[in-house]
Amino acid sequence: MAMTLVSTVTVGSGGAASIEFTGIAGTGKDLLFLFSGRDNSGGATNDLLLTVNGATTGYADRNLAGNGSTALSLSSNSAGVRAWQGGNGGASTSNTFSNYQAYISNYASSVAKSISVDSVEENNSSTAVQQIVAGSYSGTSAITSIKIQSSGANLVQYSTASLYIIS
Amino acid sequence: MPTPTYDLIASNVLGTSAASITFSSISSSYRDLVLVARMFGSTPDVAREMRLRVNSDTGSNYSSVSMNGDGSSATSATSTISYGQLGTADTTKPILSILQFLDYSATDKHKPILLRANRPEVITGYTTTGADAKAIRWANTAAIDTILLYPSSGNIEAGSSFYLYGIVS
Predict the structure, then answer these.
(1) Is B37 left (phi over 0), alpha (psi -120 to 50) or beta?
(2) How many helices (H) and strands (E) does chain B have?
(3) Is B70 on the interface with A (CB under 8 A)?
(4) pLDDT digits (tens, 9 = 90+) for A69-82
(5) What pLDDT was estimated at residue B45?
(6) CA B93, B125, B18: angle at the middle one, nearest 5?
(7) Closest by alpha carbon to A97, among A106, A107, A87?
(8) What is the ipTM for the molecules in this complex?
(9) What residues contact B1, with CB distance under 8 A and at least 6 apart?
């Protein structure tokens, strides 16, 4: 048996600043983090930030993105692994949520962590962003918590995240 | 209770360096395979390319199309060579390669292999980095029963990890 659901969190009517899983057992090989979300910002998109172990430094990422007319690549050393414009904002098509997956290999090891992200901001518009992200976290402790948030906005009701341990 | 569909076939976390990693005698009973490999190279600040071969095939039977984002440019490339290219690594900047071998045990088709490769850190003097997506075709109808991972030179270093999963049909 290899893929075990740890937990699923769904944001309630009051919204939430983030979704976080804590107390992750170190018994598995890899982590699979799935997220479907929307925030309450005034724009169509926002960056999504993924952090682990409460850390806000030690991250690096490079992406490959397409927005319907242009292919581009960006890099950052943000306070988390960034999915550039990966989240649906309040001005995007109504009832539409982004789709996001992060894969973390060997999460319980004592070496730096590689984080691979695929995400799409769904939008019935001429511009919607799909991307792959190569991310890393330099911390050498086992990952025991993981959090996702939208930059500068709260997640709205029905935003959902699920965490799986692959063992 | 749902039936498990994602089985760990084999794993290897290197305690010491190795010239290569081989998964052999792979059962044909699964539908697809997923290999998650995180590899360190053997020389600081020198990018060693990690490579793939299946069934000991050293012929120019690996065709690929790829797209890459290095943090400033988006590019695409094709190749037909004697191995699959998984990305580069050094001693502190590993490559994370997630490979999907679709319909690997079929004997009536060439084998598609999908790769997501992940290395966000720059290795000094080398521009190849970032997020890669690649589709590889192994031009052979034989069932895949052996997977070999090896570096362009040097060894795969300690701390590298390899997990091979079978997707049950």
Answers:
(1) beta
(2) 0, 12
(3) yes
(4) 899 999 998 899 99
(5) 87
(6) 40
(7) A87
(8) 0.87
(9) none
Q: Are A84 and A73 in contact (CB under 8 A)?
A: no
Question: For an interface test with B, which of A32, A50, A62, A130 has the most B Cβ atoms less than 10 Å from its Cβ?
Answer: A62
Give the rounded distance of the alpha carbon of A112 from its chain centre. Answer: 18
Which residue, chain included where needed, has tokens 């983030």?
A: A18
Alpha-carbon gap, residue A38 to A90, rounded angstroms: 7
pTM of the model: 0.92
pLDDT reported for residue B127: 63
Note the residue count of chain B: 169
Q: What percent of chain B lies above the pLDDT cut of 70?
A: 96
Say yes or no to pLDDT of B169 above 70. yes
Q: For residue B118, list chain A residues with Cβ-Cβ distance below 8 A.
A: 114-116, 134-136
User: Between chain A and chain B, how many beta carbons pairs sit less than 8 Å apart?
Assistant: 117
How far away is chain B from the Cα of A70, in angstroms, using its nearest Cα?
Answer: 10
Residues in Cβ contact with A70 at an 8 Å cutoff, skipping those fewer than 6 apart? none
Residue type (1 letter), A102: A
The 10s digit of each residue's pLDDT in A7-22 is 999 999 999 999 999 9
